[in-house]
Amino acid sequence: MNLADFEHLLPELAQLIARLIGLPKALKLIEAWGGTTFPVSKNKRRDGQIRFEALSEVVGVEAAKILTGHFGGEVLSIPRCAVALREVRDRMMRAEFDQSTRIQPAVHAVNQLARKYQMTERNVWLVLKKADQVNETRQVALF
Description:
- Helix content is about 60%, strand content about 5%.
- The protein has two domains: about 5-80, no CATH class; about 90-130.
- By secondary structure, the protein is mainly α.
């Protein structure tokens, strides 16, 4: 699964953070603090150094330096990226379903997916019926 396939589903701030520190580290930040605000320090005073250390624990020292340099003194509202994360989960479920149904009936595969992803079998079937959300920015040739 190519992570660039999901960039269009990310909020603007998440896209900027991903461009600055890379998508894997941006996802770590979102996983740790998504849905909250985080005051990015300038790393000059003691409480700023404490916040820098907390940020470093999540994304690493180099990425924390980059974020501090870009956002120092601002309060970031870290997005949850629920739409993009849900799309990743849904694609994983559909791929696992395709793999599982090669060796077992669909009903059993859905039951396993429901337990694994902690959702009802009915909701698993709904996910399986959905198509991938793709970026529609490409224009189709008219002629």
